[in-house]
Design brief:
The protein is of the alpha+beta class. It has ten helices and 13 strands. An eight-stranded mixed sheet has the order 4-3-2-6-5-1-11-12. Strands 7-8-9-10-13 form a five-stranded mixed sheet. The structure holds glycine.
Length: about 325
């Protein structure tokens, strides 16, 4: 080992061992925090479509004991919902009239998988899980992801727009105004995070992305650390809203890291929304983004840029929709 590398290794070791008095390790800070609504198991997911998704996830958790199975099966409800215009194959297309889909899944031990810009696969969350479990990779994109789905025996759907999506697309074609907006009328993405009775966490996130986006555009949802992040030592977070704004601050990773430093899930979501607003000042009045978070004790929180964001919270006492507080009123 070179003397420089030896020096660096020794410095790192000594940093770990000799923390100055009064400075706590992140794990100690996490243990010290003021716990409010802790209770586990707990599953939370974005928007009102989260209610049906939570219900499924809860029953899968009960039946299989697996929080990973729960978050996969839960969001599959929304992926398959013909009424959803912002998550599944029935969603709004891109500006070429093609529906392209993104998803990610993550376990508390750091294992993760994702797919992006994929066509014709109804349950991309299952495809993301297969990337995690059946390949040495984290992310597959586009045609490669579609071919992988075929190789795994997954059925492809016909590429036909849902009549409501087609009508909206034909309307959009009249002006072809390219304005990447996500707001309350046009909300998106289901993100689901959960913790089991033993404190094991998992999360999933799936979307058809921005309506009438550029062909090839990918948002935050399939990007580990942006749309989703899970760490069994601390907790989990997921995001919704305009992906570009979330990617710029590594939003979900940052929420989890702030919880590691002692913030509650609510405080962490609020701080990251503040950071996101700082980094995205232009056009902030027209852009929605929000986060939900849960820690390993089942304490949770949620916060958004603008009013209108809500999330579904499932625990032993039931499944309820909560309105998130927001930075602007
Ligand atoms: N949050 C989903 C997207 O921006 O695509």
């Amino acid at each position: 080992m070179s003397s420089r590398r030896k020096f660096l290794k020794q410095s790192l070791l000594s940093t770990t061992i000799f923390l100055p008095e009064g400075i706590k390790k992140s794990t100690e800070l996490f243990q010290d925090r003021n716990v409010k609504n802790a209770r586990k198991p707990r599953i939370i997911s974005t928007w009102n479509h989260g209610l049906a998704a939570n219900e499924k996830a809860w029953s899968v958790l009960r039946q299989t004991g697996s929080i990973l199975n729960a978050v996969e099966e839960g969001v599959k409800v929304t992926e398959a919902d013909p009424a959803s215009r912002t998550v599944g194959i029935y969603g709004f297309p891109d500006r070429e009239g093609i529906v392209t889909l993104d998803a990610s899944i993550m376990k508390g031990n750091g294992e993760c998988g994702s797919v992006c810009f994929v066509r014709q696969v109804k349950h991309r969350i299952t495809l993301a899980r297969k990337v995690m479990e059946e390949t040495p990779h984290v992310m597959l994109a586009g045609e490669g992801a579609r071919q992988f789905a075929i190789s795994q025996g997954m059925q492809l759907e016909e590429e036909v727009l849902h009549p409501e999506s087609e009508e909206a697309y034909l309307e959009w074609l009249k002006e072809k105004e390219y304005r990447p907006i996500i707001n309350i009328e046009n909300h998106d993405t289901i993100g689901m995070i959960g913790v089991d009775a033993d404190g094991n966490l998992a999360g999933s996130c799936t979307t058809s992305g921005l309506a009438f986006k550029m062909h090839g555009r990918v948002g935050d949802s399939p990007i580990i650390g942006a749309g989703l992040y899970v760490d069994n030592e601390v907790g989990a977070a997921t995001a919704t809203g305009l992906g570009e704004t979330i990617i710029k601050v590594c939003g979900s990773f940052l929420v989890v890291e702030l919880m590691r430093q002692g913030r509650s899930p609510q405080e962490a979501c609020e701080e990251v929304v503040g950071r996101l607003i700082e980094k995205n000042k232009d056009g902030i009045e027209d852009m929605q983004a929000g986060f939900i978070a849960v820690n390993k004790d089942g304490e949770y929180g949620g916060y958004a840029v603008h009013p209108g964001f809500n999330y579904a919270v499932q625990g032993e006492s039931g499944n309820t929709l909560e309105d998130a507080r927001s930075r602007f009123s």
